[in-house]
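[User] Once you have settled down, look closely at the record that follows, and write a paragraph about the fold.
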Amino acid sequence: MMTFDQILPTVQAVLAPHKALIARIQPVIVNRDLNGRIRLVVSANVEQDADALALWCSIAKTLSEQLGRHAFPPEQMLLFEDDTAAVLADTTAFALEGIEGVKMVDRLATEGRWARIAPLSEDVPGWCFSPSRAVWVVRRHGRIGLVPGPVRQASAGIGPGPGIPGAFIRLVTG
C-alpha cells in the first residue's frame, strides 16, 4: 500500500524516463491537492499533438496505477492549461529533484486561497486548537476572552458534567 511520503519518489520514477518530452513542453506541474491526490498540469499544446497526447495519457495511466488512492483516475489525471506560468503565479512551487522542468505544487487552504502555502508567521502560537487561537488573538488586543481549560470538577452547570473529564470554558480578562 502506498503511503503519503512515497508519492514524490513514485512520481519521479514514472517521469524520469520522459525527460526529453518534459524538456519540450516544460513546465510540467505536479499538483497535489488537499487529499494528497496527484494531477499533472501540462501545456494545452499537448492536446494538439496526437503523439504527445498519447504519451501523456500513458504516463497518466502509469501514475494512476502506481499511486493508487493518491492519484486521480487516468482520464482525470491530466489538466491542460494555456498559461502554465499563471498556474505557478502566487504559489509555492519546488522543482522535482532530478527532473528539469517539473514543478511540484501543494494546494492548501490558507487565508481564503487554495492556491498557495502561507509562509510561517512569527506572531501565531503553535496551537492547533482553533478556540485557543481565537482567544489568543482576542487577548493580544487586550480584550476579554473565553479559553478552554481542564475540568477537575464541573460546577454551576459549566462543562460536560460533574466529575466528567473534558474541557470547559472559563472567562479570562485581559
